[in-house]
Amino acid sequence: MYDRYNRRINYLRISVTDRCNLRCKYCMPESGIKLVKHEEILSFEEIAEFTRIAVDKGIDKVRITGGEPLVRKGVVGLVKMLAEIKGIKDITLTTNGILLEEYAKPLADAGLKRVNVSLDTVDPDKFTEVTRGGDIKKVIQGIVAANKAGLVPVKINCVVNESSNESDAIGVKAFCKNLGLEVRFIHKMDIETGKFAIVEGGTGGNCSICNKLRLSSDGCLRPCLFNDVAFNVRRLGAEKAIEMALQAKPECGTVSLENKFNIIGG
Ligand code: SAM
Ligand code: SF4
Description:
Layout: E1 11-15, H1 44-57, E2 61-65, H2 75-83, E3 90-95, H3 100-110, E4 114-118, H4 124-131, H5 136-148, E5 155-160, H6 167-179, E6 182-187, E7 212-215, E8 220-222, E9 231-232, H7 233-236, H8 238-248, H9 261-264
Parallel strand pairs: 1-2, 1-7, 2-3, 3-4, 4-5, 5-6
Antiparallel strand pairs: 7-8, 8-9
The structure holds S-adenosylmethionine and iron/sulfur cluster.
């Protein structure tokens, strides 16, 4: 399927929860956020049904994200449901890695192809500071488990303040080289002021080639992270929501006062 600017839309990012077991400084306030009501959160059946329809229309790549997707109970079952949809070529998941050691093998067995793990520094104290309490050992054990389970290449998402020449980024680069991991540097964004840049080593942030739609955990289909436009899939039905999101996908992102990384998934 194509949007108004002739961009082929084939990538769906699904945020399965707004909850998280970390509180990264650039993503969530320390006190947490106002949580989406349970009844508003899409069930796995609803997500799978929506995805089937989206795949019929041309989606062939799906990423599961959050919040932290591995804190949602039964997420392995969702991966299995999605992997059974004919026409999906790639199913991936973005995680902070804290629970990955336990989940890597079951996820791979369920049909997940790869994972992206977020890691902004290899300094244990700094990691704890940035994530407000995270234990880097768990993340590293998770990365090792993902490699072992064949979720390769494991890709590392590293958020930088200004550039990939910062000392934390240089440390992450060396760590990745040693372990044979790919790394992407994401410039710290501010959705509310429209501050965003192209991801180094990835394609995110480049509006002219954006191929994404985003389904948030509260059932809204959003054509752009940097725009407030959203279509409720329960209210409209999947077909109509997709049609409207395609029509409304802006040529370029601007600002969003409503979107939050932990709800819509980065
Ligand atoms: N909890 C998972 C994780 O941290 O990987 C998945 C969701 S998280 C919102 C997805 C990605 O968004 C992570 O790589 C995270 O570093 C990134 N992210 C969050 N807030 C950001 C911000 N303000 N600027 C740039 N990237 C951000
Ligand atoms: Fe949680 Fe990921 Fe946001 Fe960190 S970036 S607070 S791990 S959702």
